[in-house]
Request: fold
Amino acid sequence: MMRCMVLALLIAFGTQAQESVQFPIPKFFKLQVVADDLVFNGVDMSITGFDTNKSPEEIYQFYQNAWRGEIRESVFGDWIIYSHLKDGLLFTVQFQQQDKLRISGTLAISNLPSLQKKQLKSLGEGFPKARNTRVANDIKAYDGLRESRHLLLVNKMSMKSNMVFYKSALTGQGWVLQHGESASSEGEALLFAKDNSTLNLVMTYRDGQTFIQAIRIDN
Reply:
């Protein structure tokens, strides 16, 4: 379970490693809870979300100072990720630019010693994947009676080929296509439903790869 309390610009996360640890939070972050119970790529995590009108450079500078230069920066699609490792705990700031005035993202702490190879092998389990598709993220959240799953998949097939694959694979699993549209020349979106569940697929094509975000919600 996640415990979140903002005090003196710090957020306390419950983890398996210790009762609580402190995550530095800048004044310009507006926080919101993402999930009470969450598993990220097979690792139990504490996680919360944030919005800000500051720039990526200002966010980086804050964490560069807070973590005394022990910070790693990486980019995945539209996402910018700053991370810091300490005592077996991985601190992660992950965000993307929503528009010129708003950045939205998440803060997370994961207990790395809890990660096992067999958990990595099970990423994306039960979800259809075209050949040579890589599972970048598999996030499962539990909030009361409601469960959700957010996957990020990557392959080198065209968006058209991915659209054909997922329409066939998901309808074969009993999903009914509710809506499909071209979000732009670089994006496609599909909405499926089955029983009390919905599944939203958003595909974008960049640098010779198709990024597929799948969000399933079970009510």
About this structure: The helical segments are 56-66, 117-121, 159-172.
